[in-house]
Automatic annotation (TrEMBL):
GO terms for biological process: regulation of intracellular pH; sodium ion import across plasma membrane. The keyword Cell membrane applies. The lineage of its organism: Bacteria, Pseudomonadati, Pseudomonadota, Alphaproteobacteria, Rhodobacterales. This is Cation:proton antiporter. Keywords: Cell membrane, Ion transport, Membrane, Sodium, Sodium transport, Transmembrane, Transmembrane helix, Transport. It comes from Rhodalgimonas zhirmunskyi. SMART domains: cNMP (SM00100). It is a multi-pass membrane protein. GO terms for cellular component: plasma membrane. The chain crosses the membrane at residues 6-24, 31-50, 70-89, 101-122, 128-149, 170-191, 203-224, 244-268, 288-308, 320-341, 361-380, 392-409. The keyword RNA-binding does not apply.
Length: 832
C-alpha cells in the first residue's frame, strides 16, 4: 500500500477529528455520536466506491481506508491504555475516595447484573450457548459516560454526581473487559454452559494480579522520574511508556487484567506524582495526556465506526429481534441499578442522594461506543470462535451500539430538557437578576472612568450613557421584584460563592508556586467538599466540611498505630509534615477571603449575610490557628522551617517576575534571561525540598519544654520519650469513659479537653494532665473526658507514671495543684 496515500488518509482523519467538535456543538449532539456517524459514512462510502461501476478514480482512496490496519489489538493495546491512563490521571482521587462505596458497587455490581441479564435473556431467546450469551453480555456492559457527563457539566449538575458517573464508568470498563476475557476463554475452549460462580471465582485473580502489576510499575516509574527532576521531557517520556508496559506485562507475562494494571498504574502515579515531580512538569505531563486521550478517543470512535458496515454484513431479519432482546435486557439491568441499588445505598447512607430526574438522565445516557465495538471485533477475528457465534456477536454488539448512539445519543439533550434539568431553579433565577444588577452598577462606574481617561466626545458619551442607564434601571427593577430569595438561601448561595472563590485562589497560588502541587490536591479537595457541603446542607454542611479539613483522619491514626506498635515512624512523619504544610496553606488562603466577602458578596446578598460569612471565616481561621499552634508546640522548630521555606519560595516567585518584566521592557536580552532563569531554577529546586521531620528528636525537644517534666536528666528524658505514646483525638471524641479502669495518665500536648463528673465540668489545656487521680486512688474512673478541639495527647503507662512521680518534685507539686483545683485532698493521693 502506498505510504503517501495512507499518510494522507490518517492526516484526513485528524482533520475530521478537528471538525467534529464544533459540528457537535453546532448540532447540539454528543461529540461521540458525530464521530460515529462520520466514521460510518466514511466506511460505507469506501465500500460503495469499490463496488460501484460509476467511477474508479476513488478506488485507491477507498482501498487505503479499508486497508487501514484496524484490528482489535490496535484498540486494546494502543488506544485503550491511553484513555484509561488519562482518566485516572485527571481524577480527584481524594474526592473519589469519599464515594468509593457507590462507585465500586455501581461499577462491579452493574457489570455483573448487565452480563447476567443480557446473557440469560439471549440464552432464552436464541440457540446460542450460554457461554456465548454471557460473552455478549460482558461486551455490551461497558458504558461511555462522556455524553451524559458533558451535558451534566453544561447544566451545572452536582459535581459529586458527575464524579460518581466517571468513576463508575472507569471501573465498569475494567470489570467488563476482565469478564470478557473469562467468557472468551470458555467460548474458545468450547465450554457451552460455564459455571458462573466458577467464572467469578477467577475474577479476583485477574483483578488483584493486574492491580499489583500496575502498582509496582507506577512505583518504579515514579522513582525513576524523581531521579530526573531537572529533565522534564525525560519524565514525560517515562509517563508515556508506563501504561503500555503495565498493560503488556499484566496480559502477556502474568495472565492478569491489563486494563486493571493500567488503572492501578494511573491511580498510583496520580497519588505519588505531585510529590516527586516538579509542579510545572506535572502540569505539562497532564496536559500532554489530555491531548493524547483526546486524539485516542476520537480516533478509536472513527476507526471503530469504519468497521460497522462490515460487522453488519449479512444481517438477517431475525437478528433484529435479538438486538431488541439485548436492548431491553441491558436497559432493565440499568434500571435495577439506578432505581433499586442506588436508592438502597442512599438509604444506608453509603451514597449521596441522586434525584429521580438525574437517574433517568443517567439511564438514557448509558451510551456504548468504541470499547464495545473493539471487543466485538476481537471475537470476530478469533479463528477459535465458531463462525456462527462470530457473526452474531458482531451484529448484536454493533446493533446495540448503534441504538445507543443514534437513538439515545441524539435524544439525550431533549430528555434532559423534558426532565427540566436544563433550567435554573427559582432561587438561581432570582440570584441571576441580582447579579446582573450589581454587575451593571460596577460596569457603569468603570465605563465612566474610562470615558474621562480617553476624553471622548460628550455627545457620544451622553447617548451611550442614556442607553446604558435604561438597561440598568430595568435590571434593578427586575432584581427588586425578585424577593423570593429567603435569607437561608442567600446564606447557602453566599457560601457556595465563597467556597468557589477559595478554590480559585488556591489555583492562583499554585500557579505562583506559593503552594506546592502536592498540597494543592489536598486543599482543592477540601474546597470541593465545602462547595458540595454548602449545596447539600447549607450552613451546617459547610461547617461540617470545614471541621473535617482540620480534623485528624483515619490515615494518621493508622500511621500512629504503625509508629507505636511496630516502630515504623516514616508514615507518621510524612503525614504530620503534610498536615503542617496543609494548615499553613489553609491559613494563607483564608486570609485572602475577607476582601471577597466585603466587596462582592455584600453587594449581592446584603450586610447580614456578609457578616455571617465573615463570622464563619473567623471561626475557620481560629480552628486552623489552633491546630497549627498544637503542631508547633508538639514539634518546636519544624513550623519555623516550613515558614522559612515559604518565604524563600515567595522571594523566588517575585524574582522570576522581575526578570520577566525586564525582558519584556528590553532591559535584558534572551541570553541573559536564560542564564538568570537557569540559576533561579537551581535555587528553586533546592527550595522545593521540604525539610525532614524527625519525630524522635522533636518529641525530646517538646518534653523539655513541658512544665511538668522540668528538672529531669537527659537519660530520663530519653526514657520518657520512648515510654510516651502519642494519641490524636478529634473534637467530640471520648477519651475516658465513666466507670472504666484507669491504667494510664494523659498529658495534653495541644488542644483542650473537658471533664464532667457529678454534674460539674472542668476544662484542661496544654501542659495539664488527667487520669492520674483514679490511677493513684485505685478507684474506678468517675469522670467522663471528651476532646473539645482536635487535640494531641501523650499517654504514659500507670506504673511508669508512679515511678516518675517518685523522682520528680515538680510533678508532685503539679499533682497537688491539680487536686486543689478539683477540691480533692492531696494527702489522699500523695504521701507526705
Amino acid at each position: 500500500m502506498d505510504i503517501v496515500l495512507v499518510t494522507t488518509v490518517i492526516a484526513s482523519l485528524f482533520v475530521i477529528v478537528g471538525v467534529a467538535e464544533p459540528l457537535a456543538a453546532r448540532l447540539r449532539l454528543p461529540y461521540s455520536v458525530i464521530l460515529a456517524v462520520l466514521g460510518m459514512m466514511i466506511g460505507a462510502s469506501a465500500i460503495f466506491f469499490l463496488q460501484t461501476d460509476l467511477t474508479d478514480a476513488l478506488n485507491p482512496v477507498a482501498e487505503a481506508i479499508l486497508g487501514l490496519p484496524i484490528r482489535s489489538n490496535v484498540f486494546l493495546y494502543v488506544f485503550l491504555p491511553t484513555l484509561l491512563f488519562q482518566a485516572t490521571l485527571g481524577m480527584d482521587l481524594r474526592r473519589m475516595m469519599d464515594d468509593w462505596v457507590p462507585i465500586l458497587m455501581l461499577a462491579v455490581v452493574a457489570v455483573v447484573v448487565a452480563t447476567v441479564s443480557v446473557g440469560y435473556a439471549l440464552s432464552w431467546a436464541s440457540e446460542l450457548p450460554l457461554a456465548a450469551c454471557l460473552l455478549i453480555g460482558a461486551i455490551v456492559s461497558t458504558t461511555d459516560p462522556s455524553a451524559v457527563v458533558s451535558i451534566f457539566r453544561s447544566i451545572s449538575a452536582p459535581r459529586r454526581l458527575a464524579r460518581i458517573i466517571e468513576g463508575e464508568s472507569l471501573l465498569n470498563d475494567a470489570a467488563a473487559i476482565a469478564l470478557f476475557g473469562l467468557f472468551m476463554g470458555f467460548v474458545m475452549l468450547g465450554v457451552p454452559d460455564p459455571s458462573f460462580s466458577g467464572a467469578l471465582a477467577q475474577f479476583p485473580v485477574l483483578i488483584l494480579g493486574g492491580a499489583l502489576t500496575g502498582w509496582l510499575a507506577a512505583r518504579m516509574a515514579a522513582w525513576v522520574m524523581s531521579m530526573f527532576s531537572q529533565h522534564e521531557l525525560a519524565q514525560i517520556s517515562i509517563s508515556v511508556a508506563l501504561p503500555y508496559l503495565a498493560y503488556i506485562v499484566a496480559e502477556q507475562s502474568i495472565g492478569a487484567s491489563g486494563v486493571i494494571a493500567v488503572v492501578a498504574a494511573g491511580l498510583t502515579l496520580n497519588l505519588t506524582g505531585p510529590g516527586r515531580i516538579p509542579p510545572q512538569a506535572w502540569t505539562n505531563l497532564r496536559e500532554l495526556w489530555n491531548v493524547l486521550a483526546h486524539w485516542a478517543g476520537a480516533l478509536i470512535f472513527i476507526l471503530a465506526a469504519l468497521l460497522i458496515p462490515r460487522l453488519l454484513d449479512g444481517v438477517r431479519l431475525g437478528d433484529f429481534v435479538l438486538i431488541g432482546v439485548v436492548i431491553l435486557a441491558a436497559i432493565a439491568a440499568r434500571v435495577v441499578i439506578l432505581f433499586g441499588l442506588l436508592p438502597l445505598l442512599t438509604a444506608l447512607k453509603m451514597s449521596p442522594v441522586v434525584e429521580r430526574p438525574y437517574r433517568v438522565a443517567i439511564l438514557w445516557g448509558g451510551l456504548r461506543g468504541a470499547v464495545t465495538l473493539a471487543l466485538a471485533l476481537a471475537v470476530t477475528e478469533s479463528f477459535r470462535v465458531p463462525d456462527g457465534i462470530q457473526r452474531l456477536v458482531g451484529i448484536l454488539a454493533t446493533g446495540f451500539t448503534l441504538f445507543t448512539l443514534l437513538v439515545q445519543g441524539t435524544t439525550l439533550r431533549k430528555v434532559i430538557g423534558w426532565l427540566g434539568l436544563d433550567r435554573l431553579s427559582p432561587i438561581d433565577e432570582a440570584l441571576s437578576r441580582q447579579v446582573v444588577a450589581v454587575s451593571l452598577q460596577t460596569v457603569r462606574e468603570d465605563v465612566a472612568r474610562a470615558t474621562e481617561n480617553y476624553d471622548l466626545s460628550h455627545d457620544t458619551v451622553r447617548v451611550e450613557a442614556k442607553r446604558f442607564g435604561e438597561r440598568l434601571d430595568a435590571a434593578v427593577k427586575s432584581a427588586e421584584e425578585g424577593t423570593d430569595i429567603h435569607d437561608r438561601d442567600r446564606i447557602t448561595l453566599g457560601l457556595i460563592a465563597l467556597a468557589g472563590h477559595e478554590r480559585g485562589t488556591i489555583l492562583a497560588r499554585v500557579r505562583e508556586r506559593t503552594i506546592s502541587a502536592r498540597m494543592a490536591e489536598q486543599i482543592l479537595s477540601d474546597a470541593d467538599r465545602l462547595i458540595e457541603g454548602a449545596r447539600s446542607g447549607g450552613r451546617s454542611g459547610y461547617q461540617r466540611a470545614a471541621r473535617r479539613s482540620t480534623a485528624y483522619g483515619a490515615a494518621i491514626r493508622v500511621a500512629l498505630l504503625l509508629h507505636s506498635r511496630f516502630g515504623l515512624s516514616a508514615p507518621l512523619a510524612r503525614m504530620t509534615a503534610d498536615r503542617f504544610e496543609q494548615l499553613l496553606s489553609q491559613r494563607l488562603i483564608l486570609r485572602d477571603l475577607d476582601d471577597f466577602v466585603d466587596k462582592r458578596i455584600r453587594r449581592i446578598h446584603g450586610r447580614r449575610v456578609a457578616n455571617l460569612l465573615n463570622d464563619l471565616l473567623t471561626r475557620r481561621v481560629e480552628a486552623v490557628e489552633t491546630a497549627l499552634e498544637g503542631l508547633r508546640l508538639q514539634y518546636p522548630g519544624y513550623a519555623e522551617k516550613l515558614e522559612r521555606r515559604f518565604i524563600r519560595r515567595t522571594a523566588l516567585r517575585l524574582e522570576e517576575r522581575e526578570y520577566a518584566a525586564m525582558r519584556e521592557d528590553g532591559l535584558i536580552g534572551p541570553e541573559v534571561h536564560t542564564a538568570l532563569m537557569q540559576d533561579l531554577a537551581a535555587r528553586r529546586a533546592a527550595a522545593e525540598q521540604r525539610p525532614r521531620l524527625d519525630i524522635a528528636l522533636q518529641r525530646i525537644a517538646f518534653i523539655q519544654q513541658f512544665p511538668l517534666f522540668e528538672g529531669l536528666e537527659e537519660s530520663a528524658l530519653k526514657r520518657l520519650s520512648r515510654a510516651l505514646k502519642t494519641r490524636y483525638v478529634n473534637a467530640g471524641d471520648s477519651i475516658v469513659r465513666k466507670d472504666s479502669v484507669s491504667r494510664s495518665v494523659f498529658f495534653i500536648a495541644s488542644g483542650a479537653v473537658e471533664l464532667e463528673s457529678a454534674g460539674q465540668t472542668w476544662r484542661l489545656g496544654r501542659g495539664e494532665m488527667f487520669g492520674h487521680f483514679a490511677l493513684m486512688s485505685k478507684k474506678s474512673v468517675r469522670a467522663e473526658v471528651r476532646a473539645i478541639v482536635p487535640s494531641t495527647l501523650l499517654v504514659l503507662d500507670g506504673e511508669q507514671f508512679k515511678r516518675l512521680l517518685g523522682r520528680s518534685a515538680v510533678l508532685r507539686d503539679a499533682v497537688r495543684a491539680s487536686a486543689e483545683k478539683r477540691g480533692i485532698e492531696a494527702s489522699e493521693l500523695l504521701p507526705d
